[in-house]
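Q: Got a minute? One more chain.
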Amino acid sequence: MKNKKTHKILTLMLLITVFVGNNSCKSTKSIAQIEPQTETLSSNLKVTFTQDNQTSGITLDGQMRIIKGQAIQLSVRMPFIGTEAAKVVITPDNILIIDRLHKAYAYEPISEVYQLFSVDLDYYDLETQLFQTQDNMSFKLQKSDVDVKFLTADKGAQFTIDATPPNPEKHTQVTLEQLTELFKKAL
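A: Always. Here it is, folded:
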């Protein structure tokens, strides 16, 4: 049961990062960061989206990082260029979604995600599922087949996760509802 909930949250995270990341620009510097103090996990990903009735699709490189008890980050990089296109950071209290293409971001309480998407899974359950499960996944998302391949898993890696919203002079804050509407149009 929790595995289906985990797939639903991962689907949301991938949808957000892939949609906003198709034509991205450069990233911004952070002011505050969450320092790793406990267990960590860093996984490289390949995410492939294939439209119905097509033999090939778009494949994006991504990375998932977890600092146990503090933050989960999923980022997607632009093909060929390699710069970060989009990033989702989930903490026990908040979610930060950065769209590098449109220079927009959403920063809201995590409870908003649970309400908006009718998900009955808290941060710690999601973290536990992602930390323990590194299986490849396939699922249907709107008109696309989605395949997620975990290429590497490095437990104990040293890194930081930036949970600071971007500079409001360079990025516009939007709501999760606005991002959701953009996703529906894109898919």
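A: Strands lie at 40-51, 58-67, 71-77, 84-90, 94-99, 104-109, 137-141, 144-155, 172-173.
Q: Perfect, thanks.
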